[in-house]
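Help needed: design a sequence for this.
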């Protein structure tokens, strides 16, 4: 629960009294700005805190002064509520300034209750789940099964086994699903899980031998384990950056994770470079995961995970003869090989922006902290430049992290196929 401070302010221009409420953030300095509704006088400042010593230092003001009286029953002409966890923009309804939280609810008139529940779930996950999940994940990666079992017992039904690899796999993803639920829980996500499971189950039935060979090689080469660990580590990094993503959570729709964010967020001090690094690593993870996905597609279309089709553009100049060879190739041209499976192609490509990734890699991305705009070149010469808001960049990074989570579930499904193989006799 965020602590709220209340101040009565007097507009420096028209002398109207403003009841100003501001939530305490996790920063030592929380800037704010709004306008007097009577005369449009800009009022800005910052709440100055000492987080280490848990002290309120000052409320800096420009365009207003503290009212003569701070009594609870003080009369006021305008009310402003400012919460640092939500996107801010000037919005008045019938002359009253609507708080950022209410702005978010009002923009979701048809699903306001669902939005409030999701924000509540996020607060619960952040304060009551994620620290445990981080420890569980680290113990899973370290294969410290005693500590892993102690950790997951808090979240799984009593009596659920966790001794065998398949049981640990199941428990891990139950916990992960709970931890990521504020961002993914939806009918669309349930449908995707069914589709991914059906795709693998179909191959188990139609091409059991080829699938077993593929899974055996993927495990032997370390692709499955590396992909799982990379996805787990990315998820932990995402949790650690949640304060950066909070402003867009109210506008994030798990049913439509590919929707763009049209609102401009007020930005100041940001963790742009950390989010940028997270996005790049998520992009690279998705690209590496194409090795596993193409193995499945090759089995489905050619009954051999090593049988890659000619590249639509590069033809046989980009036609590896093995899964291992595909893994070593550059990532950029790989996506076009997904054309045989349009649904899979669209699912993955909507979460990645190759031009943005290349610009980050070449250090040609520019972030303007004053405007909150990010610009990057679309060609080598830099003649064409694209500009997006920081909010849209956060939205793209969250979308990529949702894809990481979804691909991690595909890895789980592949592990289950290893633990519970369908024999030739069962398949027939």
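Sure. Designed sequence:
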């Amino acid at each position: 629960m965020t602590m709220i401070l209340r101040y009565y302010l007097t507009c420096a221009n028209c002398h109207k009294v403003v009841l100003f409420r501001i939530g305490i953030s996790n920063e030592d300095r929380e800037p704010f700005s709004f306008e007097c509704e009577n005369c449009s006088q800009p009022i800005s400042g910052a709440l100055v805190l000492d987080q280490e010593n848990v002290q309120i230092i000052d409320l800096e003001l420009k365009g207003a002064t503290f009212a003569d009286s701070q009594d609870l029953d003080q009369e006021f002409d305008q009310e402003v509520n400012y919460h640092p966890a939500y996107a801010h923009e000037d919005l008045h309804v019938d002359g009253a300034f609507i708080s950022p939280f209410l702005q978010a609810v009002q923009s979701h008139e048809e699903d306001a209750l669902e939005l409030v529940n999701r924000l509540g779930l996020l607060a619960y996950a952040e304060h009551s789940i994620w620290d445990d999940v981080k420890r569980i994940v680290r113990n899973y990666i370290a294969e410290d099964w005693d500590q892993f079992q102690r950790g997951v017992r808090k979240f799984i039904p009593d009596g659920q086994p966790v001794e065998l690899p398949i049981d640990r796999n199941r428990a891990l993803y139950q916990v992960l699903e709970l931890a990521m639920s504020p961002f993914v829980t939806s009918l669309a996500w349930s449908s995707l899980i069914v589709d991914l499971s059906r795709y693998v189950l179909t191959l188990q039935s139609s091409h059991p031998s080829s699938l077993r060979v593929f899974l055996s090689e993927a495990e032997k080469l370390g692709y499955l384990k590396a992909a799982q660990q990379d996805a787990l580590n990315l998820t932990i990094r995402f949790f650690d950056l949640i304060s950066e993503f909070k402003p867009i959570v109210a506008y994030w729709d798990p049913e439509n994770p590919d929707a763009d964010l049209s609102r401009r967020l007020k930005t100041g001090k940001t963790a742009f470079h950390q989010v940028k690094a997270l996005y790049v690593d998520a992009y690279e993870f998705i690209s590496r995961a194409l090795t596993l996905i193409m193995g499945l597609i090759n089995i489905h279309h050619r009954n051999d995970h090593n049988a890659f089709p000619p590249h639509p553009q590069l033809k046989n100049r980009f036609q590896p003869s093995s899964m291992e060879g595909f893994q070593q190739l550059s990532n950029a041209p790989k996506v076009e090989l997904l054309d045989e499976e349009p649904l899979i192609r669209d699912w993955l490509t909507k979460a990645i922006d190759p031009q943005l990734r290349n610009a980050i890699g070449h250090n040609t991305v520019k972030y303007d902290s004053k405007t909150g705009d990010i610009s990057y070149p679309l060609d080598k010469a830099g003649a064409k430049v694209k500009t997006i808001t920081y909010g849209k960049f956060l939205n793209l990074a969250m979308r990529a992290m949702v894809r990481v989570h979804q691909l991690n579930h595909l890895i789980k499904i592949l592990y289950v196929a290893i633990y519970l193989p369908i024999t030739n006799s069962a398949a027939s």
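The two ends are 57 Å apart (CA to CA).
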